[in-house]
Amino acid sequence: MKIDPIHQFNIEPLFTIGHIGNHTIAFTNSSLYMFLAVAVISILMIGGMAGRQLVPGRLQSIAEISYEFVASTIRSTAGAEGMKFFPLIFSLFMFICISNLIGIIPYTFTVSSHIIVTAALALLVFFTVLIYGLYKNGLKFFKLFVPHGVPIYILPLVMFIEILSFFLRPVSHSVRLFANMLAGHIALKVFAGFVAMLGVSLGAIGWVGGVLPLALTVALTALELLVAFLQAYVFAILTCIYLNDAIHPGH
Amino acid sequence: MAEKSHGTPAKGTGAHTEADGGHGGGFPPFESSTFASQLVSLVIAFVALYVIVSRIALPRVESVIDARQNAIEGDLSAAQKFKDESDAALRAYETELASARTRAQAIGNETREKLNAAAEAERKTLEDQLTAKLADAEKQIAATRETAMSNVRGIAADAAGAIVQRLTGVLPDSKAVSKAVDASLKG
């Protein structure tokens, strides 16, 4: 039995939607899971709040906790002005979190294990920061690259580093999420594959020996659950921090 | 994996699409032929999510949380109002009780004094009456004694005369007898 940990990341087109230039636009398994995530979030946030109960039930509690969680994250990192971007950050957080959580279920697909998806989201944040920062602060936005209290003779160097780090933000922002999801799912698949491989190649002894990788797979699944949530949180909080630069550039 | 050729341009111009022809031929996340499809889906899904979240979901959650906050604040202020009311009622009760107590004490004192005065007056009239009666009785006793005394003298004189007649056979002079009786009574 051959372990193929990469197979789970394949994009399988389900049907073709149309063509843009030379590209065929297909509805793929990735699209399916994107819309599934959107549907789950909608059911959670709208269905859960349908009761509008004063004392919330389970689903309403989850909806309210997600709301409060994202809202408090924004308030603590970007201040009250950051609440302008509440829908954006909430959408990002919930989209990544829910699609990651769905991706842990065996035989499903993880949307954020593709660099193009995470890069698109990171660039969305990057351009939101850049455009809003310039729109709100004008040229003062570039004070972001000139930190206070830096001696004049090393200022050019510091500015160079600041500008470089600013433009590398979308790279680190997207690669962090992509690499975490990719590596986690590969590790899970490899360890799960060991169980079957041992059983097939060594017979009874193999099945007994397979307990170890099975236990590791269980532990890794728990870890992946944590990572799925944590990476969504990290993505959201970095978005808040970047937006804070756009709101208050002269830090 | 024949359907994987969806990334192959229709006009066959892209050279890079050769690599993703078969399964395991490339690393899926870096297969650029799938990027367009994913981006289009992502844009549609994310815009839909953004609209749903910003137009429907978040305002709803916010209104529910606000309503709860208002309900809690309303309940708390109502409870505070009731507590204030009960405190005021307690204070009113206490002042009322204190004034009633002083009033009751005053009424008690007044009544006691009135009753004392009445009893005193009654005692005095009774005493006066008794004194008068006592004086009358004493006077009567004195009068009765006087009469009794005078009767005793007459009886004694008669008896003395009779005794003298029996002894001597001679009726004594009544004047001398009464004189002797008087002397004897005095002695």
Automatic annotation (TrEMBL), chain A:
PROSITE patterns reported in the protein's UniProt record: ATPASE_A
Location in the cell: Cell membrane; Membrane
Molecular function terms, GO-annotated: proton-transporting ATP synthase activity, rotational mechanism
Source species, domain of life: Bacteria
Gene Ontology terms: cellular component: plasma membrane; proton-transporting ATP synthase complex
Membrane topology type: Multi-pass membrane protein
InterPro entries xref list: ATP_synth_F0_asu, ATP_synth_F0_asu_AS, ATP_synth_F0_asu_bact/mt, F0_ATP_A_sf
Keywords annotated in UniProt: ATP synthesis, Cell inner membrane, Cell membrane, CF(0), Hydrogen ion transport, Ion transport, Membrane, Transmembrane, Transmembrane helix, Transport
SUPFAM superfamilies: F1F0 ATP synthase subunit A
Transmembrane annotation, as ranges: 32-51, 85-109, 115-135, 144-168, 188-216, 223-244
Record-linked HAMAP family: ATP_synth_a_bact
Protein role: Key component of the proton channel; it plays a direct role in the translocation of protons across the membrane.
Family: Belongs to the ATPase A chain family.
The protein, known as: ATP synthase subunit a
Species, as recorded: Bradyrhizobium lablabi
Lineage, highest ranks first: Bacteria, Pseudomonadati, Pseudomonadota, Alphaproteobacteria, Hyphomicrobiales
Name of the gene: atpB
TrEMBL record, chain B:
GO CC annotation, single: plasma membrane
Database matches in InterPro entries: ATP_synth_b/b'su_bac/chlpt, ATP_synthase_B_chain
Coiled-coil region(s): 83-147
Annotated localization: Cell inner membrane; Cell membrane
Residue segments, region Disordered: 1-26
UniProt topology in membrane: Single-pass membrane protein
Keyword ATP-binding included in the entry's annotation: no
CDD domains reported in the protein's UniProt record: ATP-synt_Fo_b
Keywords, ordered alphabetically: ATP synthesis, Cell inner membrane, Cell membrane, CF(0), Coiled coil, Hydrogen ion transport, Ion transport, Membrane, Transmembrane, Transmembrane helix, Transport
Segments traversing the membrane: 35-53
One Pfam family linked to the record: ATP-synt_B
GO molecular function: proton-transporting ATP synthase activity, rotational mechanism; proton-transporting ATPase activity, rotational mechanism
Chief place of localization: membrane
Function: Component of the F(0) channel, it forms part of the peripheral stalk, linking F(1) to F(0). The b'-subunit is a diverged and duplicated form of b found in plants and photosynthetic bacteria. F(1)F(0) ATP synthase produces ATP from ADP in the presence of a proton or sodium gradient. F-type ATPases consist of two structural domains, F(1) containing the extramembraneous catalytic core and F(0) containing the membrane proton channel, linked together by a central stalk and a peripheral stalk. During catalysis, ATP synthesis in the catalytic domain of F(1) is coupled via a rotary mechanism of the central stalk subunits to proton translocation.
Assembly mode: F-type ATPases have 2 components, F(1) - the catalytic core - and F(0) - the membrane proton channel. F(1) has five subunits: alpha(3), beta(3), gamma(1), delta(1), epsilon(1). F(0) has three main subunits: a(1), b(2) and c(10-14). The alpha and beta chains form an alternating ring which encloses part of the gamma chain. F(1) is attached to F(0) by a central stalk formed by the gamma and epsilon chains, while a peripheral stalk is formed by the delta and b chains.
Family to which this protein belongs: Belongs to the ATPase B chain family.
Name of the protein this chain belongs to: ATP synthase subunit b
Organism the protein comes from: Bradyrhizobium lablabi
